[in-house]
Each structure stands twice: as structure tokens, then as C-alpha cells.
Design a protein that fits this description.
The chain is of the alpha+beta class and 83 residues long. The protein is built from two helices and five strands. The chain has a five-stranded mixed sheet with strand order 1-2-3-4-5. Strand 1 and strand 2 form a beta hairpin. The model has no long low-confidence stretch (mean pLDDT 95).
Length: 83
């Protein structure tokens, strides 16, 4: 599986795939709070663990930063409820 890349200036995590990337988008609500807003994996790349890898990388980073984490994205929210 490809590496997850964090593009801080674009507020997203990506995995480069052939065609278009898999993406986890977030929005900083303030200095201490983050909202993960959307997860997208191109149709042909689904079911291969890309979305999970993105979410795990995003949540790991947010926890290291000690952010208050919210998820308006249903997929990310599933991971928060499992904690």
C-alpha cells in the first residue's frame, strides 16, 4: 500500500493512486480543535484499506497534536466511537 502524505497547507491527508488520490480532508476549527470532514477513495481503489490508512494517520497526527477531535465524516466517526 502507498504511503499516506500529509498536506498541511491543504488540510488533508492523501494516498497517491493511479488516476486520482484517496483523500481525508479536515478543517481546523480553532487552535485546539479539528473536524475531519470527508473521506474519499476512488471507486476502483475501494475495499483495499486506503480509507482506513488515511483515518488512522489523521487521527494519530491529531492526537499527537493534542487536538480536540470531531468528525462530521461518518467514516471517521466510526473510528472515534471505537476508541
Amino acid at each position: 500500500m502507498s504511503d499516506v502524505i500529509h498536506l498541511i497547507e491543504k488540510q488533508c491527508f492523501i494516498i497517491e493512486l493511479i488516476g486520482e488520490p484517496a483523500v481525508l480532508k479536515y478543517k481546523m476549527l480553532n487552535q485546539n480543535s479539528i473536524d475531519f470532514t470527508n473521506t474519499f477513495v476512488p471507486f476502483r481503489a475501494r475495499g483495499k484499506g486506503h480509507a482506513e490508512a488515511l483515518v488512522e494517520a489523521g487521527l494519530s497526527w491529531a492526537k499527537q497534536q493534542e487536538f480536540n477531535i470531531q468528525a462530521s465524516c461518518w467514516y471517521v466517526d466510526k473510528f472515534l466511537k471505537d476508541d
